[in-house]
Fold these 2 entries.
Entry 1:
Amino acid sequence: MRDLVALAAVLLPLLLLDTGWGGSFGAPDLLPPGHRPVEHRLILDWPAERDWRFCASPTAGMHGTTAIARGEPFAFSSKYGTRIYALPRGAALPAAAEALAATAWPHGAVPVREVASTAVGSRLARVVTTLRVTAIDGNDIHLAVVREQRFDADGRELGNLDWLPLAVVAAAGAAWLFVLDRRVLRSVRGTAEAP
Amino acid sequence: MLATLLEYLPTLLLTLLLEGAVVMALARRSERALTLEVCLALNLLTHPLASLLAWHWQPDVLLLEVPVVLGEWIGYAQVLRCTLARALLLSAAANAASWLAGVLLWAVIAR
């Protein structure tokens, strides 16, 4: 009973704290506690024989349009719903996103979710996703993810085995727990068998 | 891989220190050493797994604490052979303290 009262004393203030702070933590422009920002960029590629021009523009917010150069990274936002547009030959790039959205030019949504933050302790600082235009079909641009590269703050690409050191630590913890459990079991048995 | 470990270890050490201190304060005198050992071993198991989840899927930290508290609850109850209420107290109090410390630390760093 005393443990339950103590437990309630621990959990109730925490729940109240979380309820009170929930609005600010959940706000889209704030980083959640224990997280830091990550820069996520896209690279667009398209068949060399096609003389297409592309630009990126959000569907919400106050941002303008960005002309996309083949193989050059550009910013995007999942929150503001960045779309990629194909410009007709000879068309001028509108400065305002609203003007672009009003056109009937082919467009497509970015097929990846933006990585905006990561937990403290992670080396991740930058994500680069390469997309390829596979087809333009009527009003739709079909985009495929070619690859995703993750980099640390020094620009070194993070490898596929970055989970291994943490898995080794977890395995050491599991082994230690097993040993402790055996030790307690032996001690309990020893006490029970004692005359 | 070494760079990953070096980046990760400070957060693990901070968690071990905090949760170890809380569990030591709550443990019965006769089983303080064992409770501390169980706390350290449980955190060596749960912290890297939770960190991997946090790195790859960026879930809400509080949401991530739920399976951690549940896992450590079972761990304390199993190894210490104590009541479920006592095990939950140890697990919830230690993780609440480390979560709160994380929030405060983040607030200081983010300023």
Note: Chain A has three helices and ten strands.
Entry 2:
Amino acid sequence: MTTVAPAHQPGTQAAMRTPGGPRPVELSWAPSSHARRLLTLALAGLVIAVTARRAEFAAVAAPALLLLATWRQDRPRSVLVSTTLTASRMVEGEYAAIRVTLSGAGRHTVDLRIEPASAIMPGEQDTAGVPFTAAHWGERAVGALEITLRDRWRLSEGRATIPLPRINCYPLPAHQSTRVVLSRLPSRLGEHAARVHGEGTEFAGVREFVPGDRQRRINWPATTRRGSLQLNTFAAERVQNVVVLADATADVGSPGSTTLDLVYRGAAATIRAYLASRDRVGFIQYGNQLSWIAPATGRRQFHRVMDAMLAQPGGWDARSAISRLPRAALPPGALIIVFSPLLDRRLVETLRDLRERGFTLLIIDVLNAVPEGGRDHAAALARRIWRMEQQAIRFSLRELGIPVVHWDGEQSLDEPLAPYTRRMMVSRR
Amino acid sequence: MRATSGRAPGDRAGAPADPGRPPDGAPAPRLTPRVRSSAAAGLLAAACIAWAAIPVSGGGTGTRPALVVAIGCAALTLARLAAGDWVPPAGIFENVILRTGRMLLEVLRAIPWAEGTVIAVLALEALHPSRPWHTGLLGVALLAFLFAVHLAESDARPAVLRPQLPVLAAGLGLLVLGCGAALLPAAGMSAASGWLRVFAVAAAIVAGALALPI
């Protein structure tokens, strides 16, 4: 059964990132390992002194015993702790920190340490808090905060562990500074110079002056040459609708740079690049379920899309049969940029359908892995057949007029897109 | 209309991270107190063992086993400090080597190797003929070793021991007092005479401790 639903609304999780005010935390006290070692030294010295009748060993025990004699019982049963994450969301490899406010510790020294959850790497405690980073994107549990109180003699330790909130770790966007722009843009004010004349700032040519034109646009050198009033014309500036389609049906390849990692990192880069040029960007996640976010502009849209990426797990389900994308997710004349390893036949059929519906598509192929198997002749033959099938899929898409470029995940996205970013991409109906 | 200012959304990350360079906001790499204290603990352990063992031939029966145990415990103490809080990455499909490594790490953390080092070094010293000033110096070194281990374990700077300095100084004074008392000639060679000397030294230490304004 296929579920088609719009992606969840943003802001619902961000509010849960910072827990409430200070709360009492019970401490469990025990002798420190330092105290146990001092006790061992004292007892060993005394035992040897008595059994071997060697008085100097009693002297060896004296400093340890004197240090142990400073043991005090005045220690807090509980402390008030409040924890705050410095960021409600982060990017892979970026550092965030947990700010801890602790009161009621008296003269005890406080040590804070993160017991990390999976893929979380804690840093060293500093004045700003306890830093940590996430090695991989996802909605992650940070782990637990271990609080250790030590008395000034460091003989007893009070420990408490409090769970930490979860954090959204976004995929690290790849590098992309150029953009593919369609030759035909919708008539909405934007930043891309269109082919039609308008009120933009990019010079388009000169034409004869007609009454009603603005005099400040008269091109005097051209007027002198031609003998009649000539007017500068400018290109209209239009916005572009871009829909990024992320194929989450497959996750193959080496850990850390699987096809799903590359899909999300590439999609994040493209979304960021187009939003930076004030374009309207939408997002479709194609996986077990289909979720989408309608095109919009701004930073908020970026976070909305990133949250949607993390909300839906990737995967493949033989029962799902998505072959047509909803009309609401695809504004007319939009450029559809597809990040996919092209391993799912249903997606290939969907792309063909989109092309037949007149959309302009650009596929970024992120497949960098080949099936592993034996080294015998049959396995090699199977791999060769598989490779030929993949080539055939890409060839058939190119035959339909859908450009397919390959991206290895390490180079900048500008490189594979260079043939399409140098000039406007012609949108064919 | 052109974009004139402002960073792109999510621009905090920028280009993919350079593996050789810590990301923005990461603490700069430096020699941590843990490393310094671990090195000090290693040197002090080696010094204690060497001091207690020399001369190896001059010790009684069991000197060599005690020496081996002391060296082993000291090495494992250092291994424990080096392991710190490191947790090996967990996987579903672990081979025998990884599982054995994980088990050994748990054993390394469970057994108090530093205490074993202290006991073995004291036993090594006790196997040699009586030499009070020598034992006194060994006591000072063992105390320093224990403090170094504690600093390495808790990743703390030596400054945290400042409140203990008066007590530590008084303790070292008692140690000198005890060793001095042990250097006094015995009244006889009998067992009772030996115990009497031990109790006399202990009484001197207790009296000194009670007189301390701590």
Note: The two ends of chain B are 77 Å apart (CA to CA).
